[in-house]
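Input chain follows. Return structure tokens only.
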Amino acid sequence: MTQSTHTTEIAVIGGGLAGCEAAYQLASMGHSVRLFEMRPVQSTPIHVTDQLAELVCSNSFRGDAASNAVGLLKREMEALGSLVMRSARAAAVPAGGALAVDRWLFSRRVTEEISGHPAIRLERVEVAELDHPAAIIATGPLTSPALHRHLEALLGEGALAFFDAIAPVVAADSLDMDRLFRASRYDKGEGADYLNCAMDQPQYDRFVNELLTAEKTELAAFEAEDIRYFEGCLPIEVMAARGPETLRFGPLKPVGLVNPQTGRVPWAVLQLRQDDIAAEHWNLVGCQTKLKKSEQKRVFRQLPGLQRARFVRFGMIHRNTFVNAPRHLDGQLRLKAYPQVRLAGQITGVEGYVESAACGLLAARFLAAELEGRPLPPPPSDTAMGGLMRHLSERPATGFQPSNITWGLISCPEELRRIRKKRERREQQAAHAVRRITQWADSIRDQ
């Protein structure tokens, strides 16, 4: 690790994925960092520990193949020395073609790296307003009310918001393994990384009906007013309400899975993903929900193999906030009204663990280059990081909503468009993008 050689102390506010990545990147480039995290002095409605980079929703970092846009983003981050990606690899659990982690081990590794870095000073205190000459705000969707109000006043408008949801987690020793089967779709990963709950048509129809009629947690009037759900993480009962086949063509799709007990593809399948290294806890994939706790137990226990399921964590819904990035941020993630301050992570309008951490990495690189008097341009548009910046800076301000990284945000070089097979083209794009992002990061040295 590089010792600090710069005298300006940079404030990074928020100890989540984006804040920790930003602090680590800055410190590794020789800058002194003061990282503020309000927990445990002040907690949030959904955090349960005082660890940095606590994962409050899924334990999945999603697809890991190079032909997947988020898989490419991972590779770009690793090429630039990402702390979050290194920690995720070290805490990985079996998840087929995805990268999933033991959430507690992951957070502990990040916390130890940040706490032990000689150039990072960690302070457990709430920041209510901005008074630092150079700062990155990475407080995420659960920004404290005081800082939220300060940002609203600074930006001159109310924050935008959307609803996000969390899936339940159950204990392995409470599951009937004789009624579940091990498999990954299309035998990806080790081929047997998920537990699978197979449903025939009557069981599926009954499950959908129970989701529609079960009691839901009521939202406060001010919360429910003009707030949308994030399409990438809809509550399962909201998906069910869109049509009886929605779940069967969504998170409960049976494609790529054959039940060894029958030799046939089931009508629908609920998958359970390992949530910790010891395989004691399993996440109900795609079952994020706002059902009342008693109803979660009643409804999910009707499924094969889950009759005696013990819930380690119940699903829940929470309100996320973000700013209108095209209106308020420039191409360097600076607030237009307060250019000494950059935003990073989900508060900018990127969605997902990997995207949030990548945003922290970008904010740190931009700020370091500025402080060193050698400004860094936005990353090339044919990289995943460049795609994230396109989402934040080129989308219309009207109707702006959070987004994951997608291939639609990444431009394809002309010579690669001629490759007809999509997977091969994506893999070639990924290799090209990693080279391009490395050149981009190194360009500051050539100035």
